[in-house]
Design a protein that fits this description.
single chain, five-stranded mixed beta sheet, alpha+beta
């Protein structure tokens, strides 16, 4: 009985861990690598980025413009805690970079509304014998299936590969198809990384 209870707890821990990882990697992936204040402002800004992106893609297609994006940045940036930063210079430098890169990547015109927009989806994954719940930040129709896009403050190669594998597993199990591509935008350095999922990614993702 104790073993059964432990397994149930473990499954929910896996689910909660993965959901937190999807929404804000700085809560799960980096906590031991960052100083407390730096971790806090990264979490804070990632939450603001999520809100800006979500609100922007809820706008009618004709209103998805640089001006609209700039207004949203201005509106939501006041939720970023100035006292989390080590200096005013660091605060304004991060603000300038995030603003510049958000305007750059959000201004790409969409031809149709997203397939998923911050939508929480569930599926059972045999490989981990657990129900997996993730929130797809942005998924758009593509030529062959759909593409998934995620906006992060910053991400290294290892984190991006983990996300790519996780989305591949979920899409395969829940939807029966793989995304045509997984696109990850790193807003601190303006870098865009694109992964093209294949069937061989599934066992890696489960692992």
């Amino acid at each position: 009985m104790m073993n059964e209870n432990n397994q149930i707890v473990e499954k929910y821990m896996i689910q909660d861990h993965l959901e937190s990882f999807i929404m804000c990697p700085y809560q799960v992936y980096y906590p031991q690598l960052l100083h407390e204040k730096e971790r806090m402002w990264r979490q804070n800004i990632q939450s603001v980025i999520n809100t800006i992106v979500h609100t922007y893609y809820q706008l009618p297609l004709q209103d998805q413009t640089k001006l609209s994006a700039l207004k949203l940045i201005y509106q939501h940036w006041n939720h970023v805690r100035f006292d989390f930063f080590s200096s005013g210079e660091e605060y304004y430098m991060v603000l300038a970079k995030i603003t510049d890169h958000l305007l750059q990547f959000l201004s790409t015109k969409s031809k149709q509304p997203p397939v998923f927009l911050y939508e929480k989806l569930y599926t059972y994954v045999k490989g981990i014998e657990s129900q997996l719940c993730i929130t797809i930040e942005l998924a758009e129709w593509s030529t062959k299936s759909f593409s998934v896009k995620k906006f992060l403050l910053e991400a290294d190669q290892h984190l991006m590969e983990r996300y790519h594998h996780l989305v591949s597993v979920f899409s395969h199990e829940a939807l029966g198809i793989l995304p045509e591509k997984v696109e990850i935008v790193s807003l601190l350095d303006g870098r865009k990384s694109i992964f093209y999922p294949i069937d061989q990614d599934i066992p890696k993702g489960v692992q």
